[in-house]
Amino acid sequence: MTKKLMSLLMIFGLMSAFVTGLYAAEKPTKKAKQTPQGLYLTPKEAFDMIKANPSKVLFVDVRTPAEVLFVGHAAGLDKNIPFKYIDYSKFIMTKKGHKKFASWKNPQLVQEFDAALKAKGLSKEDPVIVICRSGDRSGMTATALYKAGYKKAYTITTGFEGDMNKKTHRRDLNGWKNAGLPWTYKFQPELFIPKPTPPAGK
User: What is the DSSP letter of 133?
Assistant: First the structure.
């Protein structure tokens, strides 16, 4: 190998490391937010990545349709693909004896991501950015996508609303909205997928 070729390879390696480092939020401490790939983004990093090349990034919100509709969503979103659905007409009891709404995980989660990729002309080699309320569901979704062969499944670690502030009991610490990034309440029907029938027993 010539010295010139070695120099070029070293330069390429340094450039790759630099580009990767541009989008490298810290590893979250909460286990639910962690992913096997370790591809973490702050809201600002996600915004910059999408803005730099919007046609080459799939941006998906995995909150429930009700959250997206009534709480608002990030501008530039491609699709709402819920990690789970909630039945607001039915209560169930938790193991601790508390009531909560019945819910079930989206059985078509990966297939719906596959369809969204195809509709945008992308593949599993392209970046996919996932956002939820505060980073738990997006982390679990990114893990599921990794297991399905996605090579660049990024999660926004603080989500759309951010983590809970124990002092104010509000989500005012971090997240997309608190970062001052563009978002909207505008109803965009093309973002949503028709709600499936709940599985038997749910």
Answer: S
Q: What are the residue ranges of helices labelled H in the chain?
A: 3-22, 43-52, 65-71, 109-119, 136-147
CA distance linking residue 122 with residue 163, whole number of Å: 31
Q: Give residue-wise pLDDT tens across range 80-135.
A: 999 999 988 899 998 889 999 999 999 999 999 999 999 999 999 999 999 999 99
Closest alpha carbon to 75 in 39, 104, 50: 50
Measured CA distances, 133 to 9, 90, 126, 163 (Å): 41, 22, 24, 8
Any idea which architecture 23-185 has in CATH?
A: 3-Layer(aba) Sandwich (3.40)
β-strand partners of 84? 105
Domain residue spans of the chain: 23-185
Burial of 139 (0-12, 13-18, 19+ CB in 10 A): buried
